[in-house]
């Protein structure tokens, strides 16, 4: 079976991994694979899920806006309509059960990859959220107690903060090293990497003039160029620095939504959650906001990426005819990518036709008709 994967971000790379392992003949199209995924902090934190279509989340966004961390510049209209239509609606119990399975699968899969060869700074030393006020800490504890993931957590003292919540089961990686690792593994599985933008004719299953049996769209926020799906971009920034951190764990400052992850050869700062499709850099505020925790000696590089967000924060994984779609995991694309890749391969190989709630937007499409065919 010849499969074209359009988009070599982390979801496309894991899709190729599982498909090739099952014997499919895979080609990935991406001008620069991983470029829009590597800015991420690399926290494997599937239990820190945000249900976007809730008034609680909207209140959180408004708080972020007040702190000057979030801006609303441009949203996909279809996304906004679906968000409002589904506001505060609870997904069915099976949806949470599927997410719990996907979370567990992904956490275990990164551990397994590291057991084969830890060439991507894998660490399972947990994650610490730090809170500036007692009130927010209390709210955080309440949210974790009510979480459908029932994560293990404990409250801890953190000097200079009201306190922290520590999640011992969560892990982290170096995103750029994991992309390199996957590219090596994919080469061994004979996956072809075509470093071009794909022009796609979905009806004819034709990519850059070549016909395939199946097409997989894992091209992040750019999926809306091909299909009318409710996905919008929440832009964020990554800064690689050298210097010293006060704490050796991965940390998230809840007030500002900034993650700090000390890796073997640099420290990564990430943040920003702005509804914005533009490539304008506005991430320097992170230096000021993290100076109590990180002493920066050198800035190695800066990058940005676009979280592909569905209206409810659940990933969108589904299939229409011979076209399979995988996107939408928003803040947690890395945390769910192994499971998303595995589920996408099951759809492509015809083992299943739908995953219910997370396939709903794809199941609803009448035809896979390109918005812009090439
Ligand atoms: C600042 C920041 C920090 C984050 N931290 C974390 C974290 O710690 N943990 C976590 O789980 N998640 C994190 N995320 C979220 C995560 O990075 C995203 O969810 C993830 O990158 C989405 O992956 P993707 O493969 O779906 O899309 P993308 O990474 O956007 O990849 C899509 C790819 O498609 C390609 N493409 C587009 N159109 C075409 C075309 N026509 N032809 C060929 N290729 C095309 C693009 O070049 C791109 O490489 C973070 C995000 C940001 C912004």
UniProtKB/TrEMBL annotation:
One of its GO terms (cellular component) is cytoplasm. Residues 3-347 form the FAD dependent oxidoreductase domain. It holds the Pfam family DAO. GO terms for molecular function: oxidoreductase activity. InterPro entries: FAD-dep_OxRdtase (IPR006076), FAD/NAD-bd_sf (IPR036188). It comes from the Archaea. Signal peptide: none annotated. Its cofactor is FAD. The keyword Oxidoreductase applies. Keywords: Flavoprotein, Oxidoreductase. Belongs to the DadA oxidoreductase family. This is D-proline dehydrogenase. It comes from Metallosphaera cuprina (strain Ar-4).
């Amino acid at each position: 079976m010849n499969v074209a994967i359009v988009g070599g971000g982390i979801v496309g790379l894991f899709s190729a991994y599982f498909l090739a392992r099952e014997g499919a003949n895979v080609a990935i199209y991406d001008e620069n694979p991983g470029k829009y995924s590597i800015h991420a902090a690399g926290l494997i934190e599937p239990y820190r899920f945000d249900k976007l279509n809730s008034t609680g989340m909207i209140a959180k966004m408004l708080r972020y806006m007040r702190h000057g961390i979030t801006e609303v510049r441009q949203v996909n209209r279809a996304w906004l309509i679906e968000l409002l239509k589904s506001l505060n609606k609870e997904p069915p119990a099976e949806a949470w059960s599927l997410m719990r399975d996907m979370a567990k699968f992904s956490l275990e899969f990164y551990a397994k990859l590291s057991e084969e060869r830890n060439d991507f700074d894998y660490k399972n030393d947990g994650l610490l959220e730090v809170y500036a006020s007692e009130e927010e800490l209390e709210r955080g504890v309440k949210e974790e107690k009510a979480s459908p993931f029932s994560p293990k957590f404990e409250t801890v003292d953190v000097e200079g903060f009201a306190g922290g919540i520590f999640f011992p089961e969560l892990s982290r990686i170096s995103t750029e090293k994991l992309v390199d690792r996957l590219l090596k593994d994919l080469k061994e599985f004979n996956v072809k990497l075509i470093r071009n933008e794909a022009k796609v004719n979905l009806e004819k299953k034709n990519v850059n003039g070549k016909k395939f049996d199946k097409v997989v769209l894992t091209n992040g926020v750019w999926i809306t160029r091909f299909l009318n799906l409710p996905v919008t971009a929440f832009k964020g920034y990554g800064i690689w620095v050298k210097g010293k951190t006060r704490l050796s764990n991965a940390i998230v400052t809840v007030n500002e939504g900034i993650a700090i992850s000390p890796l073997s050869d640099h420290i990564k700062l990430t943040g920003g959650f702005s509804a914005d499709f533009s490539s304008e850099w506005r991430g320097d505020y992170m230096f000021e906001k993290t100076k109590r925790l990180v002493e920066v000696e050198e800035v190695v590089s800066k990058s940005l990426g676009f979280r592909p967000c569905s209206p409810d924060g659940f990933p969108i994984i589904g299939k229409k005819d011979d076209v399979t779609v995988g996107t939408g995991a928003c803040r947690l694309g890395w945390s769910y990518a192994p499971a998303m890749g595995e589920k996408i391969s099951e759809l492509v190989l015809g083992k299943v036709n739908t995953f219910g709630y997370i396939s709903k937007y794809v199941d609803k499409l009448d035809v896979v008709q390109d918005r812009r065919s090439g």
